[in-house]
Prior knowledge:
alpha+beta; 6-stranded mixed beta sheet; 5-stranded mixed beta sheet; flat
Amino acid sequence: MLExxxxxxxxxxxIVPVCSHKYLNISGLxxxxxxxxLQVEEEGAGQSITWMQDxxxxxxxxxxxLVVAREQKAVFLSAKWRTDDSGREEMTLAVxxxxxxxxxxxxxxxxxxxxPLASQKRSSTGRPDWTCVVVxxxxxxxxxxxxxxxxxxxxxxxxxxxxxxxCRTYEIPRHPGVTEQHEExxxxxxxxxxxxxxFSLFQSLRACRNQVARAAAAGSDAIQPPPxxxxxxxxxxxxTIVDHSSVGIMTLCVFDQMKNASILGGFHASVKGSPPAxxxxxxxxxxxxxxxxxxxxxxxxxxxxxxxxAVASKLTSALFSAASGWLGxxxxxxxxxxxxxxxxxxxxxxxxxxxxxxDSRRHGESICLSPCNTLAGVTDDFGRVTLLDLxxxxxxxxxxxxxxxxxxxxxxxxxxxxxxxSPSAPLPxxxxxxxxxxxxxxxxxEVWGTQQGPRxxxxxxxxxxxxxxxxxxxxxxxxVTSQGWQLHTQQVCLLDxxxxxxxxxxxxxxxxxxxxxxxxxKDMHLLKKLTTILRNILESEAKSVxxxxxxxxxxxxxxxxxxxxxxxxxxxxxxxSQLKLLQLYTDIxxxxxxxxxxxxxxxxxxxxxxxxxxxxxxxxLQRYAQLTSRPSVSFAQDSPDSPLPARAFLSQLECTEDxxxxxxxxxxxxxxxxxxxLFWGCLSGESPLRRVCDTLxxxxxxxxxLxxxxxxxxxxxxxxxxxxxEETVRNLHTLLITLSNMKGAVEESWDPQSVSPWWQQVxxxxxxxxSAAAALLAALVxxxxxxxxxxxxxxxxxxxxxxxxxxxxxxxxxxxxxxxVLVLQTLLWVPPPQGxxxxxxxxxxxxxxxxxxxxGIADSIAKxxxxxxxxxxxxxxxxxxxxxxxGDDNSEQRNRRMQTIQQLLVxxxxxxxxSLSPDLLFAHCCWEYVVQxxxxxxxxxxxxxxxxxxxxxxxxxxxxxIVKRFSAAAFLMEKVGKAxxxxxxxxxxxxxxxxxxxxxxxxxxxxxxxxxxxxGVEEVPPxxxxxxEVWCGAEGxxxxxxxxxxxxxxxxxxxxxxxxxxxxxxxxxxxSLRVKPLSLFDSKGKNAFFRDLTSIQLMPSGDMDPGLxxxxxxxxxxxxxxxxxxxxxxxxxxxGSLLQVNPDILRRHLVCELYxxxxxxxxxxxxxxxxxxxxxGSQLLVLTGQRLSYSLLHSQSQTQPAMELxxxxxxxxxxxxxxxxxxxxxxxxxxxxxSSRLVSRLIEILPENHGQYSLALHLLEAVEALTTED
Length: 1270
C-alpha cells in the first residue's frame, strides 16, 4: 500500500477582473489547512498525480465532510479544529473513517454524494445536524451511511449500475409566481430513473439512525427499517444516457396548455380547467444528444420498497432476518448463503421523451443545473459547453475548446442598498447567475456571466484538479423552519491534489451588471472598504482607494463623508437654476389665471382682408371639422388640457452658464404639452399675450424655440382651433408679430431679396404638418404678418419691390398649396361604406405630395376610390360634371353620402385639373385595384378601367402580377389533364377554383384589350402629362402613367397566342373539360408562352401535325357541346381558325348540337353558314332517326296508332330505327312538327343521287303519318 498525504486549504478566490487584489473585501475569508490521508492500491513506483481522476469525490455543501472513494474503498474526512505551529487555531479536515464499502462480490462504487440533514431543534441556526453519505454501486444498490461509515439503509432499485446520484433541496421562492419545489433524491441507471421523495427520505434516515443508535446501546442487531417511497421511470427514446438533472415541478401557463391541447387533440380538443403539474427531467447522452422528459403528477403511484412491504405485512421472522441480511444489519457470522438472495426489482413506468436536441454525432457527457432551475450547462465529447434554456427547450449559447470540462454555478445576491431603502415598498433583491468552467487540459478556471454575459474572470490552476459543485443545500428544510436561518454553504470549490488546496469561487454581484450600473456597484463596494480603512486611520490606503472611485455620485458621497460641512459649487448652481425655472413656472401659471386686457391696433390693422379669406374657406373648414370630429379613444394623461406638472416642466428646460434658459427637445408628446402650457391660454384668449411673451423674453429663451413651441401647439390642437377660428387666428397673429419683434428673431440685416430664416421656419412647419386646416390658417396669418413687416421696412430698403415679389410670392404659393391640400384631405376623410375593405385614412401634407412625385395626387385619389368601392361608371359620371355648373339634381334621388362624395370629388378635380385628368386617374385606379387584387386574389375586383394609357398599364399588369399566376394555372391544368380541384388551385395558383375561373376570364379580357389597343395605337396620340403650376416642384418616383407611356408596344401575334391559351383555360375551367392545354401546341408554340409581350418570339408555322390538328378539333367540338353564354359558340369558331381547325366542321357540329338540344330555329340559322351540305345531311339524318326512334320505341306513352304505324313501316326502316340510340339526344322530347320540319330540310339538303335519299323519303312518310294520326 502506498500512502499519499495531501494538505487541502480553503482559500477565498474573489474574481474581480478590473481591480487588483489589495482592494478585495476580505471580511469573510476562510483560511483552513486540512490534512488527511488516503489509502490506494500501489500501482508502481512512478505513481502519477492523476490518480484522483479515477476517484469518486464528493464534498458536502457545508464543507464539513469530504468523501473520496475508488473501487471498493472509501475515505471520509470530517471538519475538526486544530492548532498550528504558530498557535493559531484553524479548521481542518481529518480522516473520520476509512474502509471497504462494497458487500456484494465484484461491485464497485460508481457515485457518491454527501447530503447534510437539518436539525429539528428550535435553537438551530442553520448548521446541519449530521451528514448522510449516499453511495451508488455498480451492482445497482444504493446504500446510506453516517459520517462514521455506519450503514443505515440499503436498497436495490435496479440491477444495472448506478450512473449518477443527484439531490435537490428546498429553496425559498424569490417571486410569488414561482412554483415551490420539493426535496428529492434522484438515482440514474442506464435505462431508468428513480426519484425518492425528500421528506420521506429525511424521516426514514432519521429513524434508521435512531434505531442504529438504540441497537448499538442495547447490543442488539434487530432493527426495523422504516418504509421508503420512490418512483421509477423507464426513460425511452434515447440510445444512451450518461447523466441527468431533475428540474422539479413545473406548471404550464394557460396559453401553452391550450396550444398543446390544440396540437395534440385538434380543433375540438377539450382543455382542463387547471393546467396539470409536471415533473421535468433532462437527460444527456446520445440519440438524441439531450432529451426532455415530462412526468405528469398523479399519473403513476409511488412504489413501496420490499422492506416496507415486509414491515407492513408482518412476515415471518425468517423472511425478515433474510431481508435484514442484505440490508446490512446482520452479523457476518450469521450470514447464510442460501438466504443471500437479491430482492425483487419493481418494473419501471415507461416515460417517453417529449422532445430533444438531435445531433447524431454529438454525445453528452454531463449536465449541470443552475440554482434557479431555468438554465443548464451541458458538456459533450466534441469539447463544447452548451447553455440550455430549460423553459423553451433550446440551446442559447455554446463555448468551444473545453474538452473534459467540469461545470459549476455561482448564484450571487445583490447587497443591501438602495433597493431596500426606497421610500416606497422595498424592492426584491436581485440575483445573478455565473457559470464556472474548469478546463483541465488547459489548466484554466473561467467564470462567465449568463445568459449572454462576458467572461468576468479567468484563473490559471493545475491540470489535475477536481471542480466540486453540489447544487443543493440542507435536506429537511421547509418554508417554516427556514425562517431566520442563515445557511452557510459553499457553491463551487476546486480541489487541487498536487498542493492539497481547496479553493472556493466567489463572484461580486456588480460583475453581472453592465456599464454605469456595474461601475456604480463596484464604487459602492470600494466605498464600504474606504469606510473601514478610515476607521482604522490608514490615510495612504484611503487615498489610493479614493482615486480609484470613478462614479461622480459616489465621489460626492465620499466628499460628504470626509467633510460634512463642505458644499459642492455645482450643487449650488443647480439649485439656483432650478429655482429660476420654478419661478418661471409660477409666473406663467399666474399669468394664465389673469384676464387678457391687451389690445393692439397695429395687429388688427395688419389683419385687414383675412375675414374674406375665412368666409371663403368657411364651408370647407366646417366640413373638414365635421369629418375629423369623429369620436376616438384617448388616455386622460395624454389630453392636451391636462395640467403640466412642475417636474415635467423642469425636465424640458435648463439654464446655461450665461444664465439663459434653453428648451430641451424631448418626445413629441412632452413638447406639445410644454407648448400648450406656455401658449394655449394666449391662443384661446384667456391669458395676456404680451405679458406672457415679455416674461419668456426676460428668461432669455430663444425666439426660434418659442416659435417652434407655438406652431406645434397650434398644429396639434387643430380641433380646438376650428371651434373658434376667428378668435384663435387673431391671437395667433398677435403672437407671431410679438415673437418676430423679439431680439434675434428676424435679422436686422435681412435683405428682402432673400428668404428670411424666421418666416421660412413657419413655412416649413406648415408644409410638413398633416393638420391641413390648422396649417392653412397659420400660413394665412403668417402671410399677412409678412406683408405688414415688409411694408414697415419699405422706407428703409430701396429695393422694396423686389422684396415684395420674392418673399410674398413664396407665401402665395404656400397658401395655394395648403388650400389644395385642405380640399384633398377633406375628401380623404370621408369614411368608407360599411362592408368594404376600408383601411386607415391617408394623411397628406404639402411635403408628402411633393415627395410623392407627379403622380402622388392621383395615387392618393386612387387609394380613396378603392376604399369607397366606386364603380368605374360612377366615377366617370362624377368626373364629367366637374366642367358643368352645380345645380339641383332632382332627376336622381341619391343619398346624402353620395352627394357629399360627388361635391368633394368635383371640388378636388377642379383644383387639380391636370393631375386628375380622367385618363391619368383611371390609370392609377386600375393599378390600385390590381395591386389590391394581388393581395387577396379571392376577391373579384372590377378592372375594366378605360384609359388612353391602358395599353401600357395592361402590359405592366400582365408582367408584374398576372403572368406568374397565369403560367401556374396552365402548368397545373397540363399536369392534372382536367379542371383542377379547389385544393390544387389554392396550392399552386394561390386562389380557389371559382376565383381561378374568374381570373382566367379576366386574362382573356385583358389580352383582348391589348390586341384592340395595339391595332389602333397609331390613331390616338399619347396624352401630355402635365401638373399644376404650384405643384411643378414635385420630385419623387415616376408616376404610373409615365411608366405606362414608356412601355414598348406589344407584339400582336404573341398576345394573340396567349389569348388563345387563356381562352382554352377559361373554357376548361368553366365547363370542367378534360384537356391538357399545352399539349395542343407544338414546341414552338410552347416556347413562346409566358414571354415578355413586347418581345419577338418564334411563332408556330402554318404546317401543323395532323394528329395535333385532330386533337384540337376534338377539344373544339367538346367545347361546342357545352351550354353557356351565347358568345361561346362564336368564340369557338373564331379560335378554331387560329388552331387551324376547319371551321366548317365546327359549324356542322354546332348545328347538330342545337338540334340535339331542341333549338331548331337557331340551328336553321347556323345551317346557312355550313358549306358541306351532304355531310351535314347525313349527320342530321341520324339525329332525325333518333328522334323518331324515341317517339315510336322508347316513349313511355306509346299509342295504338303508333304501334300500327311501326308495323306498316318497311323492314329496312324499322331495323334502322331500332338501331338508333335516343340517349345521345340532349332533349329527346321534341314536338313532331319540329321533326317534320327537320325531315323536310333534309330532303332539300340531300341530292337525289345520295345513298340515303330514299331513307329520308321513308322517314318523311313516317313522320307525316304519325303527325296525321296525332
